Fold this protein.
Amino acid sequence: MAEIAVIGAGYVGLTLAVGAANMGHDVTVGEADADRVADLRKGRCPLFEAGVGDLLREGLASGHLTFTTSNTDAVTAAEFVFLSLPTPSAADGSADLSTLMTVVDELAPHLGKRVLVLKSTVPVGTNRDVTERLRATGCPAPVISNPEFLREGTALADFMSPDHVVVGGDDPEIVAQIADLFNLDCPVTATDPMSAELVKYATNAYLATRVMMANSFADLCEVLGADIVAVTTGLGRDHRIGPHFLQPGPGFGGSCFPKDARALLDLGASHGLDFPILAAAVEVNAARQERMADQVMAAVDSVDNPVVALWGLAFKAGTDDTRESPALRIGEMLAERGVTVQAYDPEATAADPIEICESAVAATDGADVLVVATEWPEFTEVDMVEVATAMRGDLVVDLRNLLDTEQIRAAGLHLRGVGKPSS
Ligand code: UDX
């Protein structure tokens, strides 16, 4: 078992920390937010992530997991130092590495030969830049790129049983140490740092493009009168394609796809390379959310003081995260256009002008249109007869093709799905 430091207690860092402590490693987490550290020390999990809270409390009780606001204290006993810090989009779309580089500078005098592992999604060439930065201070720490592929909502399960692991570094022995650290039973791509960094962007770019393909097929289905469910089912049964990430919806969001797509476009552009397919996916995604809002506006065109019920604010089900959420964006666009938006989400929330309601049914009170924007399974359990009674209008716009067509129809409501004939 190893001594591990994790710097940054976000989705990636905290999941890694509790997972590694559960495996028996001694983990110290450095986190700048003092309130978050206080909560974590008390066993209060700041993330809505299945299983992470339980392993947090288990790690605290076993003594394998400790938290500190001092990054330098966090690395004192460590053999391996994982950086899981935010790399948000800068105004020009590039990844903002200022937090990461500030921490690298802070740790440089304290690292010695400890292995520094970059977990954050960082532009290709960052490993090289961090290495040069460390060497300039005389710090000999090897730098390894080990991108994380976990999804929000299933973070712990994804971390504990990944499809694969990617480790990039210049020293094959250290690469092997990192690959073996968590004893994961999966294929390992051991490679150079640049290739490891690019795998992460390539994955997110490919999946984002794939989601937009499904959305474009859905648009085609609507104008042609075909059914997207049959189309993506058939498409996904071709083993060369596979069934995942073909679910049409209001577009992709979250903390990774939009940010990483922009960062990859910026990276290509900085080397004089266009990436038209990815650029189109980003553009079409933004336009899609606008178009969804337009469609709802058209439905309330003739109504005075229109009211829309919005089911879902999170960027997908299983998370309370609303970063770049299509659901939230559509709600905001409707509110900007004078619609009263009554929202309900089991976990996520929003600020004015969106009104937050206590339940899914409460959100439909007096609504002209119900928009289903996040695919929370509990929405399928709501009594649609109650909804029909509460609503002023009778249109349900299901942007996730979540609800049961027959139930909607039986309740006397009209359903408009994505890529499906209206009923
Ligand atoms: C993603 C990557 O999957 C993960 O590997 C990486 O580490 C971080 O980014 P996450 O942001 O948690 O994970 O969300 P994900 O489940 O991948 O969904 C991304 C977006 O695509 C969401 O807005 C989701 O609603 C949308 N999506 C996904 C679809 O619209 N249709 C699909 O079929 C799949």
Notes: Residues 193-224 form the longest helix (32 residues). The chain has a mean pLDDT of 97. The pocket of uridine-5'-diphosphate-xylopyranose is lined by residues 148-152, 204, 207, 211, 245-247, 249, 252-257, 315-316 (CB under 6 Å).
